[in-house]
Amino acid sequence: MGCRGPKSIIQVRNDLTFLDLTVQQIEHLNKKYSVNVPLVLMNSFNTDKDTEKIIRKYKGLQVEIYTFNQSCFPRISKESLHPIAHNCNIEENIESWYPPGHGDFYDSFKNSGLLQKFINSGRDYCFISNIDNLGATVDLNILNMLLSKDINSPEFVMEVTNKTKADVKGGTLIQYENKLRLLEIAQVPKEHLEEFKSVKKFKFFNTNNLWIKLSAIDKVLNEQSMNLEIIVNNKTLDNNLNIIQLETAVGAAMKSFNGGLGINVPRSRFLPVKKTSDLMLVMSNLYHMRNGTLSMSPLRMFPTTPLVKLGDKDFAKVKDFLSRFASIPDILELDHLTVSGDVTFGRNVSLKV
């Protein structure tokens, strides 16, 4: 969306950022139940310094915040298959390096010392989610299930939700060799892409909300039994250089754990902001906010969100998007909106289509 630095500091609601909302959620949880749930942020070399400065403003709140850095890998030239970095000085060659996807969580979390710290303090599970998923709050129903004595405590739980035509690229769960596995679109041969995108054949997709037993992470890493599929990500840099990034997905580790489960959760637990069209939805009167948590307005007549498409040329970047709205329109009765070209919106606009 054209942002520089951590995505977590984009303002998404009432001048509050993704990080502000997350901190509010956890502070409310800690106060309500007299507990001490910490917030742990995984940074990259691109966001670490900025994040450390930002989190200083939360001192004094009832939330402990920890950070750790994920790994740094060299980008590879697609033509030569050699690293494009001229030397190992990352600051001098920052465009030549990249963080290798959220699948790097496991090793980096352990190497930071935080995994052992939390195990030693008696904590059992971590809840992992993308900071830009505003629906990913701590769900006590799931936590109580994990801690229930009526079942064998699962080591790995993935939240999935019903697939729609807007989610055809999302990873899905499959049964293979008597274990649940995550299948990503990047792993699907071209001749089977339409089959993968089928809403009838694959009815659920991964929200990337995960619950994982800390002791199981430690065990799997110590046994060196984690085997994550490599995702080849092709990119073109500003200088038109074609490069390759080798990445992994955090959910792909599911097959390495015992008793992996998929839980079908309501769509409300998947509210990602990947584009400015998503930003428009969460900034609007479609949602109410309380204690950092967004919920759909009871005045909305339909259970689904409007399908909004904004032109990439004029709306893709946050700065350009904001400049085109004097105020975010009333969209309570909106079903579909497509905007292209040099369009601006005045104040007190109501959209009903």
UniProtKB/TrEMBL annotation:
Write out the catalysed reaction: alpha-D-glucose 1-phosphate + UTP + H(+) = UDP-alpha-D-glucose + diphosphate
Q: Does the record's keyword annotation contain Transferase?
A: yes
UniProt EC number: 2.7.7.9
List the Pfam families hit by this protein, alphabetically. UDPGP
Q: Which InterPro entries match?
A: Nucleotide-diphossugar_trans, UDPGP_fam, UDPGP_trans
State the Gene Ontology terms under molecular function.
UTP:glucose-1-phosphate uridylyltransferase activity
Query: Under which name does UniProt file this protein?
Result: UTP--glucose-1-phosphate uridylyltransferase
Origin species: Daktulosphaira vitifoliae
